[in-house]
Design goal:
The protein is α+β, with helices and mostly antiparallel strands and 145 residues long. It has helices at residues 57-65, 82-87, 122-131, and strands at residues 4-8, 13-15, 20-22, 30-33, 35-38, 46-49, 52-56, 71-74, 77-80, 96-101, 110-112, 118-121, 137-140. It has a four-stranded antiparallel beta sheet with strand order 11-12-1-13. A four-stranded antiparallel beta sheet has the order 6-7-10-8. The longest helix is centred in the last third of the chain and has 10 residues, at 122-131.
Amino acid sequence: MTGYHVVEPEVAGGWGPDTQFTRTPGQPVVVYKLHYVFDGWLGDQLLETSPCYIVTAALADRITQANLTGFVLDSVNISKSDQFESLYPGRELPDFRRLRVEGAAGQDDFGVTRDLMLVVSDTALATLQDVGIAHALVEPYDGAA
């Protein structure tokens, strides 16, 4: 039997002005186009800005090669804030992809609970950790919400 884990990724920034979304009262926000603005970055390959996730192109390749389920990779527009430029002058960022999680929590390799927690299988967690998520909080998933 496969185990599952809640992963709370590093938050290295947030929504930029080019993010396109719909906010309907009583419903989760739907993001159509994500613009992720970096304010800092500790180097993790999986990042979050609720309710969205992004991954480096290297991690995107690894999870695709591993035939993991429950996600779709999409484009993401990334940029650096003035704060980022001040903290890391001249630092280049790798290519990123948006990780749209569409699977069922506790069933697919990637899923999201009703309260927007990322849930991953043992196999997905091993892949994430192999590539690098040192600053993410990882806890066992108990099947709730």
